[in-house]
Amino acid sequence: MKAVILAGGHGTRLQPLTHTTQKQLLPVGNKPVIEYVIDNLYDAGIDEIGIVIGGRYPSKLKHNLAETYAHPKNETGPELTFIDQGEPLGLANAVTCAKEFVEEESFVVFFGDTIIQREIVSTVVQSFSDSDASIYLPLQQVDEPSRYGIIEFENSIPANVHEKPDTPPSSLAYMGIVAFDPILFEYIEQITVSDRGELELTDAIGLLVQDRDDIKWQEFEGTWIDVGTPPDLLKANKTMLDTIHSSEGYNNNTKWNKNSGQETGDLYNDVEIVEPVAIGEGVEIEGKSRIGPYVSINDNCNINGSDLINTIVLEDATIKNTKLQNSIIGENSTIKNISDVLSCTVGTDSVIALEGRDTDSN
Asked: Tens digits of per-residue pLDDT, 192-217?
């Protein structure tokens, strides 16, 4: 069984963060979202993974993942194949780009900007492997059905799928991972461009569900987060920090601080760490600072005399004499001397500062 990760898209709802990077590379718990996807698939037993790349920065995504999962550096890890989508024509088109990679094998399609609980991924892979179904649909109840691909039922059996319907026939959405027989490609060939100007994967799934009786589906509870907006990114960060904190031996690359003596960063006497947090390499935290809960600070950042709660700080950022809450700070940005509690999303190479309040916090 193989896996196809869809990693295109422009990430417009995550601007300004996606002005300079691919959305799948944005970190939660100090680890890019797409790496959770890859690691969970590999843990589920899939070692051949095709990644369909597009969007603004496909070369950056390819470079970062190739370096992280390089062989022989990562001899026991997954084998990644990068597939260029070219002009973005929708998710169904992206899946079709992987047809040669899939060949005649069954496969899993996983959205690369989605966090799904590891146990759910393993169940999907194992259950489909043990079945003769043409599709396995993992479903979950959602609060806003008009934002998702929603299942229509007849006699308690999936009968159709509707993409972001104005009048949802149910509140059960298909999740960001679906398993298929290669017959899916036949149904993709039958669909036409939607009103959004795209070939919708939901339309192909709908035709398949209407046409066949070998459908397997299951309703799940547990983590499923579509990381499409800054609040979603913060929610995913909180979820993964809780997971890392509660699961010893969790398979991840996070640099993790439990106290001020951890080697991953330089911390001084007046620093208070409130778990769970993740602190990267080369981080300096000084002055009278309070970090956490639910804070991820990526590599080579400097925090001085500041309080951070529910915040993600990307690499090489500087925060001084500021209180941040519910914020995301982009790479190489500076936030300085803000007297009020600040909640913001700041892009790469930005500066927010008030002059005349710069004091020595040490």
From this structure: 998 888 899 999 999 999 998 899 99
Q: How far apart are CA 207 and CA 188, in angstroms?
A: 9
Asked, for residue 103, whether it belongs to a domain, the answer is yes
Q: Whats the size of the chain, residue-wise?
A: 362
**Closest to 140 measured CA to CA, from 157, 116, 159, 164:** 116
The DSSP code sequence of 181-227 is -TTHHHHHTT----TTSS--HHHHHHHHHHH-S-EEEEE--S-EEE-
Q: Torsion-angle region of residue 4: left (phi > 0), alpha (psi -120 to 50) or beta?
A: beta
Handedness of CA 249, 252, 255, 260 (dihedral sign): negative
Determine the Cα–Cα distance for residues 266 and 263; give it in Å rounded to an integer: 7
The whole-number average pLDDT for the span 285-301 is 93
pLDDT at 248: 43
Selection from 317, 324, 325 nearest residue 349 by Cα: 317
Q: Could you list the residue range(s) of the whole structural domain that residue 302 is in? A: 265-353
How many structural domains does the chain have?
Answer: 2
pTM for the whole thing?
0.90
Question: Any idea which residue has 């397997």 for tokens?
Answer: 216
Tell whether 218 and 275 lie within a shared domain: no
pLDDT tens digit sequence for 30-64: 999 999 999 999 999 999 999 999 888 999 999 99
| 81 & 164 share domain | yes
- CATH label of the domain that carries residue 220: 3.90.550.10
DSSP-assigned beta bridge partners for residue 302: 284, 318
Amino acid at 172: L
Tokens encoding 152: 């229509």
